[in-house]
């Protein structure tokens, strides 16, 4: 049993997680949205230390209420009946994750993907601009979605980012991504973030490797060599 | 007045933000830690929709209390008297930001930087592993700290990531970074994340460009050409 087999077992184990029903998903999406707003309030608040401590105590009590019933792993929902799942608490695009902006990704007629989003002060890196690592996170997610939209999903193997100019927070941004090439289990995609004036702020290129066993092929295309393993 | 001048004015405007006192910083760090725990509880909770909605209403009330007094921009603290500031709510390393893990960075005797951290399910990408974009975000922050530790801080110009194997969540991780070369206003640094077994999971290389006017030189080294602008 290779280490790669063990990795694949863990990746595909997501299919065995219990799927969440729509009513619970909607309620938790609402809860996550409120915690997102609370997070923004924490970063910008100017209340005095006593009030901050009082609010902190109430927050702890609410966390205890939520922890009264817990799932071991983040929630999923099924997509159709083919074993595909949606990770509802993805840290970039998951409506159920308070740390996610969240970035909502849509398909474009040209076969690519696109998102329109605004980041707030929570995501500030250089003063008045988005943290470069946050831009990287959004682009990684979008590039992965482009690979999936192309029918060639995979795990990120390489990601290259070129920061052309600062990305401002608090204004509408757009990002697009599209596959440029797919060869065997490897897929390459390009993406950009653009500011309100349409000028590119960050460019990215990624290469994804499709895990053996993806699309339910049961690994029939052979094992994955160690130097060519699926990546995080 | 070039666009670059405008960017630099905004970047250096951080020095004019009102610095936060230590008592307020401590209280808000405690509050952010509780909201971080609440976020983890949201991602893992299995309460029913009615309870989720009830908690959401309470969270909204707490956000309103914090928003009763607001600052326009994320908080800073002064470091010494030389105009340098710490951004307390940095989305990767800021103790005052609930979306930050947070990653605490320390200097190493060899002139580099290091961090030991554990990511929870909030940061999951591929099932049971850390999101590749989250690893990118941590490495960007750490590489930037390495450039600063070298006395040559700058804004990220390029960032290249190579995902060698998946990075697991819920276990102790370490990451290190160090400058490999500095030339004029450009600085190159390398970094890695390693799992509990010491094996590298992600490698990264970044290039930073020091903004003109950094270190209070008032831009005396000349303007920044458009093709060579400071980046986000």
TrEMBL record, chains A, B:
Compartments where located:
Cell projection, Ruffle membrane; Cytoplasm; Membrane
The catalysed reaction is: hexadecanoyl-CoA + H2O = hexadecanoate + CoA + H(+); (9Z)-octadecenoyl-CoA + H2O = (9Z)-octadecenoate + CoA + H(+); (5Z,8Z,11Z,14Z)-eicosatetraenoyl-CoA + H2O = (5Z,8Z,11Z,14Z)-eicosatetraenoate + CoA + H(+); octanoyl-CoA + H2O = octanoate + CoA + H(+)
Topology in the lipid bilayer is annotated as:
Peripheral membrane protein
Thioesterase domain location, by residue? 129-185
An example of a Pfam family matching this protein is 4HBT
Instruction: State the InterPro entries in the record.
Output: HotDog_dom_sf, THEM4/THEM5_acyl-CoA_thioest, Thioestr_dom
User: Which keywords belong to this entry?
Assistant: Apoptosis, Cell membrane, Cell projection, Cytoplasm, Fatty acid metabolism, Hydrolase, Lipid metabolism, Membrane, Transit peptide
What EC numbers are recorded for this enzyme? 3.1.2.2
Regarding protein family, the annotation reads: Belongs to the THEM4/THEM5 thioesterase family.
What protein name applies here? Acyl-coenzyme A thioesterase THEM4
